[in-house]
Amino acid sequence: MTGQFEPLPDGGAAVPLDEVEISILRSLAVQLLELVGPGAEPADGDDSDDLLASIFSDGPSEPPADPVLARLFPDAYGGPDLVPDDDVRAASAEFRRYTENDLRARKREDALALIRALDALGSGKGGAVLRLKPEECRQWLGGLNDLRLAIGTRLEVTDEDDGGELLRLPDSDPRKPMVLAYLWLGGLQETLVEALTG
Protein backbone atom coordinates (compact mmCIF):
# COMPACT_ATOMS: atom_id res chain seq x y z
CA MET A 1 0.00 0.00 0.00
CA THR A 2 2.08 2.82 -1.30
CA GLY A 3 -0.29 5.08 -3.24
CA GLN A 4 -0.02 8.78 -2.54
CA PHE A 5 -2.34 11.55 -3.65
CA GLU A 6 -0.89 13.93 -6.22
CA PRO A 7 -2.38 17.29 -7.21
CA LEU A 8 -4.34 17.63 -10.45
CA PRO A 9 -4.30 20.80 -12.61
CA ASP A 10 -8.02 21.45 -11.90
CA GLY A 11 -7.40 21.64 -8.14
CA GLY A 12 -8.39 18.04 -7.46
CA ALA A 13 -6.17 15.11 -6.57
CA ALA A 14 -5.40 11.62 -7.85
CA VAL A 15 -4.06 8.43 -6.29
CA PRO A 16 -3.26 5.03 -7.80
CA LEU A 17 -4.99 2.20 -5.94
CA ASP A 18 -4.61 -1.51 -6.47
CA GLU A 19 -7.49 -3.97 -6.20
CA VAL A 20 -6.74 -4.78 -2.55
CA GLU A 21 -6.58 -1.11 -1.56
CA ILE A 22 -9.88 -0.40 -3.33
CA SER A 23 -11.48 -3.36 -1.57
CA ILE A 24 -10.15 -2.34 1.87
CA LEU A 25 -11.21 1.29 1.49
CA ARG A 26 -14.67 0.32 0.29
CA SER A 27 -15.14 -2.21 3.08
CA LEU A 28 -14.08 0.29 5.74
CA ALA A 29 -16.36 2.99 4.30
CA VAL A 30 -19.32 0.57 4.29
CA GLN A 31 -18.62 -0.37 7.91
CA LEU A 32 -18.45 3.31 8.84
CA LEU A 33 -21.74 3.94 7.07
CA GLU A 34 -23.35 1.08 9.00
CA LEU A 35 -21.93 2.39 12.28
CA VAL A 36 -23.16 5.95 11.72
CA GLY A 37 -26.60 4.57 10.91
CA PRO A 38 -29.32 5.28 8.39
CA GLY A 39 -30.57 8.76 7.75
CA ALA A 40 -34.11 10.01 7.95
CA GLU A 41 -36.36 8.78 5.19
CA PRO A 42 -36.87 11.50 2.56
CA ALA A 43 -40.41 12.77 2.33
CA ASP A 44 -42.30 12.17 -0.92
CA GLY A 45 -43.05 15.30 -2.88
CA ASP A 46 -41.93 18.83 -2.07
CA ASP A 47 -43.87 19.64 1.05
CA SER A 48 -42.32 22.66 2.80
CA ASP A 49 -43.80 21.52 6.14
CA ASP A 50 -41.82 18.27 5.89
CA LEU A 51 -38.68 20.21 5.02
CA LEU A 52 -39.11 22.49 8.03
CA ALA A 53 -39.87 19.50 10.25
CA SER A 54 -36.68 17.79 9.14
CA ILE A 55 -34.63 20.93 9.77
CA PHE A 56 -36.01 21.40 13.26
CA SER A 57 -36.24 17.74 14.27
CA ASP A 58 -34.56 17.01 17.55
CA GLY A 59 -31.60 14.70 17.71
CA PRO A 60 -30.36 12.74 20.68
CA SER A 61 -29.43 14.61 23.83
CA GLU A 62 -27.22 11.91 25.36
CA PRO A 63 -23.80 10.91 24.03
CA PRO A 64 -23.60 7.53 22.31
CA ALA A 65 -22.57 4.54 24.44
CA ASP A 66 -20.28 3.11 21.74
CA PRO A 67 -16.79 4.64 22.21
CA VAL A 68 -16.32 5.03 18.43
CA LEU A 69 -19.60 6.90 18.02
CA ALA A 70 -18.77 8.99 21.09
CA ARG A 71 -15.50 9.94 19.35
CA LEU A 72 -17.23 10.70 16.05
CA PHE A 73 -19.96 12.70 17.84
CA PRO A 74 -18.19 14.24 20.85
CA ASP A 75 -19.77 16.42 23.51
CA ALA A 76 -19.50 20.13 22.78
CA TYR A 77 -18.35 21.11 26.27
CA GLY A 78 -16.16 18.28 27.45
CA GLY A 79 -18.77 15.73 28.38
CA PRO A 80 -20.31 14.73 31.70
CA ASP A 81 -17.21 12.85 32.85
CA LEU A 82 -14.95 15.88 32.39
CA VAL A 83 -17.30 18.69 33.41
CA PRO A 84 -19.38 17.97 36.52
CA ASP A 85 -21.36 21.22 36.27
CA ASP A 86 -25.08 20.57 35.62
CA ASP A 87 -25.47 23.75 33.55
CA VAL A 88 -22.62 22.73 31.26
CA ARG A 89 -24.05 19.21 30.91
CA ALA A 90 -27.44 20.69 30.02
CA ALA A 91 -25.87 23.01 27.45
CA SER A 92 -23.95 20.09 25.96
CA ALA A 93 -27.14 18.02 25.70
CA GLU A 94 -28.95 20.93 24.06
CA PHE A 95 -26.12 21.44 21.55
CA ARG A 96 -26.11 17.72 20.68
CA ARG A 97 -29.89 17.72 20.26
CA TYR A 98 -29.73 20.38 17.55
CA THR A 99 -26.50 19.41 15.78
CA GLU A 100 -25.98 15.64 15.85
CA ASN A 101 -28.50 14.81 13.11
CA ASP A 102 -26.74 17.18 10.69
CA LEU A 103 -23.32 15.86 11.68
CA ARG A 104 -24.49 12.28 11.14
CA ALA A 105 -25.89 13.24 7.73
CA ARG A 106 -22.58 14.80 6.71
CA LYS A 107 -20.61 11.75 7.84
CA ARG A 108 -22.99 9.50 5.88
CA GLU A 109 -22.54 11.69 2.79
CA ASP A 110 -18.75 11.55 3.13
CA ALA A 111 -18.74 7.75 3.49
CA LEU A 112 -21.09 7.41 0.52
CA ALA A 113 -18.81 9.67 -1.54
CA LEU A 114 -15.92 7.27 -0.88
CA ILE A 115 -18.02 4.24 -1.83
CA ARG A 116 -19.37 5.85 -5.01
CA ALA A 117 -15.95 7.01 -6.17
CA LEU A 118 -14.45 3.57 -5.56
CA ASP A 119 -17.37 1.85 -7.31
CA ALA A 120 -16.90 4.16 -10.31
CA LEU A 121 -13.38 2.78 -10.74
CA GLY A 122 -14.87 -0.52 -11.88
CA SER A 123 -13.33 -3.90 -11.25
CA GLY A 124 -10.37 -3.77 -13.58
CA LYS A 125 -7.50 -6.10 -12.88
CA GLY A 126 -4.52 -4.43 -11.27
CA GLY A 127 -6.37 -1.43 -9.87
CA ALA A 128 -6.97 2.07 -11.19
CA VAL A 129 -6.20 5.73 -10.64
CA LEU A 130 -8.78 7.50 -8.51
CA ARG A 131 -9.26 11.08 -9.69
CA LEU A 132 -11.13 13.44 -7.40
CA LYS A 133 -12.61 16.80 -8.31
CA PRO A 134 -11.93 19.62 -5.83
CA GLU A 135 -15.40 19.31 -4.25
CA GLU A 136 -14.93 15.54 -3.83
CA CYS A 137 -11.63 16.06 -2.01
CA ARG A 138 -13.39 17.65 0.98
CA GLN A 139 -15.64 14.63 1.36
CA TRP A 140 -12.67 12.30 1.05
CA LEU A 141 -10.79 14.24 3.73
CA GLY A 142 -13.82 13.97 6.02
CA GLY A 143 -14.31 10.28 5.26
CA LEU A 144 -10.64 9.39 5.75
CA ASN A 145 -10.60 11.32 9.01
CA ASP A 146 -13.72 9.51 10.27
CA LEU A 147 -12.22 6.13 9.33
CA ARG A 148 -9.02 6.94 11.22
CA LEU A 149 -10.95 8.16 14.27
CA ALA A 150 -13.03 4.98 14.30
CA ILE A 151 -10.05 2.64 13.94
CA GLY A 152 -7.91 4.66 16.34
CA THR A 153 -10.64 4.51 18.97
CA ARG A 154 -10.98 0.73 18.59
CA LEU A 155 -7.18 0.44 18.90
CA GLU A 156 -7.24 2.80 21.91
CA VAL A 157 -4.76 5.17 20.26
CA THR A 158 -4.10 8.26 22.37
CA ASP A 159 -2.80 11.69 21.41
CA GLU A 160 0.61 10.68 22.75
CA ASP A 161 0.88 7.60 20.52
CA ASP A 162 3.06 7.98 17.45
CA GLY A 163 2.16 4.58 16.02
CA GLY A 164 5.60 3.10 16.74
CA GLU A 165 4.41 0.89 19.57
CA LEU A 166 1.51 -0.35 17.48
CA LEU A 167 3.85 -1.15 14.59
CA ARG A 168 5.93 -3.34 16.88
CA LEU A 169 2.98 -5.64 17.52
CA PRO A 170 3.73 -9.19 16.39
CA ASP A 171 2.10 -10.26 13.13
CA SER A 172 0.09 -12.80 15.14
CA ASP A 173 -1.66 -10.00 17.08
CA PRO A 174 -5.25 -9.70 15.81
CA ARG A 175 -4.96 -5.88 15.92
CA LYS A 176 -2.08 -5.78 13.43
CA PRO A 177 -4.21 -5.50 10.23
CA MET A 178 -6.17 -2.61 11.75
CA VAL A 179 -2.92 -0.92 12.82
CA LEU A 180 -1.64 -1.13 9.25
CA ALA A 181 -4.95 0.21 7.92
CA TYR A 182 -4.87 3.06 10.47
CA LEU A 183 -1.36 4.10 9.42
CA TRP A 184 -2.12 3.71 5.71
CA LEU A 185 -5.24 5.87 6.01
CA GLY A 186 -3.13 8.48 7.80
CA GLY A 187 -0.70 8.50 4.88
CA LEU A 188 -3.53 8.89 2.38
CA GLN A 189 -5.04 11.72 4.41
CA GLU A 190 -1.69 13.49 4.75
CA THR A 191 -0.87 13.27 1.04
CA LEU A 192 -4.38 14.47 0.11
CA VAL A 193 -3.91 17.54 2.31
CA GLU A 194 -0.48 18.15 0.75
CA ALA A 195 -1.92 17.76 -2.77
CA LEU A 196 -4.58 20.35 -2.02
CA THR A 197 -2.36 22.87 -0.24
CA GLY A 198 0.97 22.39 -1.98
Short synopsis of the structure:
The chain has seven helices and three strands.
Strand content: 5-15%
CA radius of gyration is 19 Å
Report the sheet with the most strands, covering strand number, pairing sense and barrel closure. 3 strands, antiparallel
* Mean model confidence by pLDDT: 85
Model description:
This protein is mainly alpha-helical. The protein contains 7 helices and 3 strands, in the order ββααααβααα. A 3-stranded antiparallel beta sheet has the order 1-2-3. The chain is globular. The two termini are 22 Å apart. The mean pLDDT is 85.
Highlighted features:
58% helix, mainly alpha, 198 residues, three-stranded antiparallel beta sheet, globular, single chain, 3 strands
Task: Detail the topology: elements first, then pairings.
Blueprint: E1 6-7, E2 13-17, H1 19-36, H2 48-55, H3 67-72, H4 86-120, E3 128-132, H5 134-154, H6 164-167, H7 176-197
Antiparallel strand pairs: 1-2, 2-3
